[in-house]
Amino acid sequence: MADYQTLRLEFNKPRPNVVTLTFDRPDALNALNSQVSSDLKAAIAEIENNISEVRAVVVTGEGSKSFVAGADIAEMVKLTPPEARSFLHDIQQTFTRFENLPIPVFAKINGYALGGGLEVALACDIRIASENAVIGLPEVSLGLIPAGGGTQRLTRLVGEGHSKYLIMTGARLNAQEAFRYGIVSKVVPQDNLDEELDKLLDKVLNHAPVAIGSAKFAIQASFNESLNSGLEIELDEAVRCFQTKDLREGMSAFLEKRKAEFTGK
Ligand code: CAA
């Protein structure tokens, strides 16, 4: 296991076959500096290397105040344009690797998710937030634009009009507002965040793992493909499901009025 300085990667937490990745720089509200970027790259590689043992990833921040308060401004202010390109390119690429994992990735947003913090959450599949969460892309207030995928993923999520509004005003949304925009799927009291995440894990992980992976892959394809090739990908993934024992089990269980026992095969 790699030695991480700025995050914790815990396998089998909060339950077997789930990995929790916690950004752990609470003194800087878990802001992303180059060390976090390098730790994150190693962490995602560790998850990828153990993917057969992992059914879901949970991404969160240490403490009760912040998920991730964005890229580290104290570090960024010193960057030359080529250094900025390298830092931001690394962040973009690493966030995309979360999106490409064949398993669901949950963002447990426990406070500030600003700038690069919201962008890492946008690369996750499902976002659940505590009531104290504050969400936004304030980069223009720093003379920058969102560059951890924010201009692309927020626009795909909420549409051009809302995205331009949120990015150009740098608005900070509270959790309920973020819910109304469709940026988070669930808002819960902070004290119940772990319990509600657990219920969400139950709901998703009780289903057939191959079907969940196929659904994620086909949905992702809708961003990169035309409708016709997206439909072809959807069809291929559905046929892949037909090749699994889990599909027989799921359909038989329905017909026999019993609970399905999925094995991931
Ligand atoms: N970078 C570096 N340090 C940060 C930080 C960041 N993004 N966010 C917070 N910190 C540090 C503060 O400097 C402070 O450190 P000190 O105690 O040493 O002074 C500590 O964390 C606590 O922060 P505050 O005292 O500011 O706490 P607060 O409760 O008053 O405010 C906040 C919280 C509203 C989140 C405020 O800290 C803030 O606005 N942070 C910056 C948010 C931001 O602009 N993020 C976007 C960054 S750019 C980006 O992300 C680019 C990209 O697209 C990848």
Structural features, described:
It contains eleven helices and ten strands. The two termini are 28 Å apart. The chain has 265 residues and is α/β, with parallel strands linked by helices. Strand 2, helix 1 and strand 3 form a beta-alpha-beta unit. Bound molecules: acetoacetyl-coenzyme A. Acetoacetyl-coenzyme A (CAA) binds next to helix 2, strand 6 and helix 4. The site of acetoacetyl-coenzyme A has 23 residues, from helix 2, strand 6 and helix 4.
Q: What is the CA-based Rg, rounded?
A: 19 Å
Quaternary structure: single chain
Number of strands: 10
Which ligands accompany this protein? acetoacetyl-coenzyme A
Would you kindly provide a brief summary of this structure?
With 265 residues, this protein is of the alpha/beta class. It has helices spanning 34-49, 73-76, 81-100, 116-122, 150-158, 160-169, 175-181, 193-205, 209-224, 227-242, 245-255; strands spanning 7-11, 18-23, 56-61, 66-68, 105-109, 112-114, 126-130, 134-136, 173-174, 186-188.
Describe the secondary structure blueprint for this structure:
Blueprint (H helix, E strand, L loop, with lengths): L6 E5 L6 E6 L10 H16 L6 E6 L4 E3 L4 H4 L4 H20 L4 E5 L2 E3 L1 H7 L3 E5 L3 E3 L13 H9 L1 H10 L3 E2 H7 L4 E3 L4 H13 L3 H16 L2 H16 L2 H11 L10
Parallel strand pairs: 2-3, 3-5, 4-6, 5-7, 6-8, 7-10
Antiparallel strand pairs: 1-2, 8-9
Bound molecules: acetoacetyl-coenzyme A (CAA).
